[in-house]
UniProtKB/TrEMBL annotation, chains A, B:
Signal sequence extent: 1-20
Keyword DNA-binding set for record: yes
Name of the protein this chain belongs to: LysR family transcriptional regulator
Keyword line: DNA-binding, Signal, Transcription, Transcription regulation
Pfam family, one: HTH_1
Keyword Signal on entry: yes
Stated family: Belongs to the LysR transcriptional regulatory family.
Domain HTH lysR-type: residue ranges: 1-58
Length: 315, 315
DNA sequence: ACGGCAAATAACCGATCGCTTAGGCGTGCC
DNA sequence: GGCACGCCTAAGCGATCGGTTATTTGCCGT
């Protein structure tokens, strides 16, 4: 199974004709036919069969098409990605839960880039808790900032405490909350739907049903809505400090809160760290980074954060 | 650039050593080293360089890793997908906007499967409007049900009207709506964030800012919240018929509504259609299908609607 | 300076890829 | 029936892949 075989197959499936695919590829028609034959033999499935005017896909063929199409386009992407990276800045990929990305990843990235004199380019991505550890261990991310990830010893990761904070529940000072917490309207950011997140843990502990959740595009929007009296919004206390000080929000007394949290920095073990990762890990221990973690950006998060995740339909 | 080269690279990057990768693959160390050399030459980038203890990735290498890891695992997935499809049921992939998937795709799929005596297996997927046309034209989906997609003639798709309906704005009968529509709280389902959707078009026409949107996990949850007086919720009129009849919701008079819509069925041209697609297209014209489109499921959609969109990080 | 270790290179070989030209065969159409 | 069209197979050929053993290079610690 080679990439040329797969791309021949994809092209035939799309164009519905071996001949058309051949001319599109600029090769003779038997070349394509044979690529197809090799694939058929290798996978032991006809994939495409002659039927009436064009070619019909077998069940196996249609399943293959979705996957092969991705592989082919990834192949092209790989080439251009590497070629365009020639001599480019080293990149450091940071993964974190959405709230951290929203509030502190930006300033942190800026400060770190400045510190490295621009030679390291930081990109921050959102990830579910369950995926963070494996992303780092598979070297698809360099540093994870968020919950403790050292539990799975087999991954061989180093997860060190960095910063302590508290998860609280916030609402407008004049909010009238009727009934018990499970009945309140809960205004959350998308990360709350990650079952491994602290917010999700809190909601489960309280027995808040899913139907009581309103998911906002980000934490800021959820707090905004809570400030207008739309309900309660869980959040990291110190990130809401401006809203608390301006009395737009206040802390609601809820069982299980404040929940004491500790953010960890997770990296590969020292000898397997990239220079960028080692440098970032060191930076996270400095007072400068600590200060950035403590003060929530300018309070104005990027309105639309797009995580660098590949989305595929029907995988 | 071959798949074996890529998997050798991925393994070396992950394990941090050529030797380890070789033993993991069960081949000699020069075999891996040479695969790496070929890749380096082909891509004209060192990818991995020796550096104390292990191997350090170049910028190009780290970019390649994310892509190559996917390609490798897709390759394995392709094999197993095709092999396990041997003699399996033919599958028909239907794409539609989230609302349609939520309310009518299920019953439609069931009825169609029953009609085909189980020989065709329907899976429904959510897609953004902009993607629906390419999914069908690329044969990654068989039928699209939703907006008219025939505008781009170059894709060579057939988009035929199937069903007429109306988009209206709903709220609780006792709702007190203050100010103009842009000030109201708008309770929407995720599809409303697709700029090509009808709901999004309506919101733009009214000038509703993003900050006024609360995104609920599905249309049912949004209507539920609207019924409790949380705001207004746009939606397809006939899908809310039960709630309207029970007076949980009522239609709000908003400029630009009711918006007359027409759902279309989009397929490849007749001669390029799979049997399953042709069969589904025919089914969509029958009174049976019409009835299913007209009546929203059993009125009780699945409480947790999970759109079958796979987000793949490396797999 | 000198071992020791791991990666790179060299030289070699069989298998397969990817392409060609030439010809056989099934299907649909007149 | 015959014909045209398009797919498949056959045969052949050069390039490269993927693997081996043997050797060289480069880095590190003592």
């Amino acid at each position: 199974m080679t990439l040329t075989q797969l791309s021949a197959f994809v092209l035939v499936a799309r164009l519905g004709s071996v001949k058309a695919a051949a001319s599109a590829l600029g090769v003779s028609e038997p070349a394509v036919s044979q690529a197809l034959a090799s694939l058929r033999k290798y996978l032991d499935d006809p994939l495409l069969t002659r039927s009436g005017g064009g070619m019909a896909m077998t069940p196996g063929g249609s399943r293959l098409l979705t996957i092969a199409a991705q592989m082919v386009s990834l192949g092209a992407e790989a080439e251009s990605a590497v070629r365009s990276a020639q001599g480019a800045a080293e990149q450091l990929r940071l993964v974190a839960p959405s709230t951290i990305v929203e509030f502190v990843a930006g300033p942190l990235a800026d400060a770190f880039t400045a510190r490295s004199a621009g030679s390291i380019e930081v990109s921050a991505g959102v990830s579910a808790t369950a995926e963070m550890a494996v992303l780092v261990s598979q070297r698809l991310a360099d540093v994870a900032l968020g919950p403790y990830l050292g539990a799975d010893r087999s991954l061989g990761l180093v997860s060190e405490p960095i910063f302590r904070c508290r998860l609280v529940v916030l609402a407008a000072p004049d909010a009238r909350l009727r009934g018990a917490p499970p009945q309140w309207p809960w205004l959350v950011e998308p990360g709350a739907t990650d079952p491994g997140s602290d917010v999700s843990r809190l909601l489960r502990a309280l027995g808040v049903p899913e139907s009581r959740l309103s998911v906002f595009p980000n934490q800021t929007a959820a707090w905004e809505a809570a400030g207008r009296g739309g309900g309660v919004a869980p959040g990291i206390a110190h990130l809401a400090v401006h809203r608390l000080r301006r009395r737009e929000l206040q802390v609601v007394d809820v069982p299980g809160t404040p929940m004491e949290l500790c953010w960890h920095a997770t990296t590969p073990p020292v000898d397997r760290r990239s220079v960028a990762a080692a440098s970032m890990r060191h930076f996270l221990g400095t007072p400068e980074a600590m200060k950035l973690l403590r003060s929530p950006g300018a309070g104005v998060p990027p309105s639309r954060f797009r995580p660098p995740v590949y989305v595929t339909i029907w995988s």
